[in-house]
Amino acid sequence: MTTHAGGLPGRSTPVLVNPHAHLALGTDMLAPAGPGEEEIFLAAGCYWGVEEIMWALPGVVTTSVGFMGGATPNPTYFEVTTGLTGHTETVRVVYRAGGNTLAHILKTFWECHDPTTLNRQGNDVGPQYRSAIFPTTPGQADLALSSREAYQAVLTEAGLGEIVTEIVDAADTTGYFPAEVEHQQYLIKVPNGYRCHARSGLACPMPGAGLTAG
């Protein structure tokens, strides 16, 4: 279940005001997907490191970090850390559609975290760290579901657990709420900052050979 009964009221105005241009890509972090582009929302634990991984992928136009899958409107980072808003830390990825771009993004998503741990990535514990994909098109949803099935087969063969990743249409959530400006491209602002990725170490069988995230 993705949309939880939040215990905090939130606010009517965004917490991200006057966003700067993307510090790695130079693009508008919040611009709608343009012609030939699509957006997808990915939650794989602490969003600082996930965003850093995603912005480096070929075909990615822009990224930002925020919150999704909860009930509290425009939550702050602190509010989400309480676990009372129902949100999970989420990366918005806008990419050029076509070719293997989405397949590469999803392959990287599965490989950059452990999708078998519920509400947890490594030492990070709480519903804000749960694994989720929020597709915005039927094609994205189909590929997300088929990639989850394919990766589950790999994990099962290796004796690992069941994938707990939620796959829920973005339109069926309360929306994406960008986080405060200090969290955007955090690892450029704080190069030695925290990165937490608990990986299975197994490759997802999608286009592109081998592991995409070391």
From TrEMBL:
Classification via InterPro entries: Met_Sox_Rdtase_MsrA_dom (IPR002569), Met_Sox_Rdtase_MsrA_sf (IPR036509), MsrA_MetSO_reductase (IPR050162)
| GO MF entries | L-methionine:thioredoxin-disulfide S-oxidoreductase activity; peptide-methionine (S)-S-oxide reductase activity
Q: What is its EC number?
A: 1.8.4.11
Quote the protein name from its UniProt record: Peptide methionine sulfoxide reductase MsrA
Its annotated function is as follows: Has an important function as a repair enzyme for proteins that have been inactivated by oxidation. Catalyzes the reversible oxidation-reduction of methionine sulfoxide in proteins to methionine.
* Species per Swiss-Prot/TrEMBL record: Trueperella bialowiezensis
Top-level taxon in the UniProt lineage: Bacteria
Q: Which UniProt keywords apply?
A: Oxidoreductase
GO BP annotations of the record are: cellular response to oxidative stress
Family label: Belongs to the MsrA Met sulfoxide reductase family.
- Catalysed transformations (reactions): [thioredoxin]-disulfide + L-methionine + H2O = L-methionine (S)-S-oxide + [thioredoxin]-dithiol; L-methionyl-[protein] + [thioredoxin]-disulfide + H2O = L-methionyl-(S)-S-oxide-[protein] + [thioredoxin]-dithiol
Asked if the Swiss-Prot or TrEMBL record annotates the protein with the keyword Oxidoreductase, the reply is yes
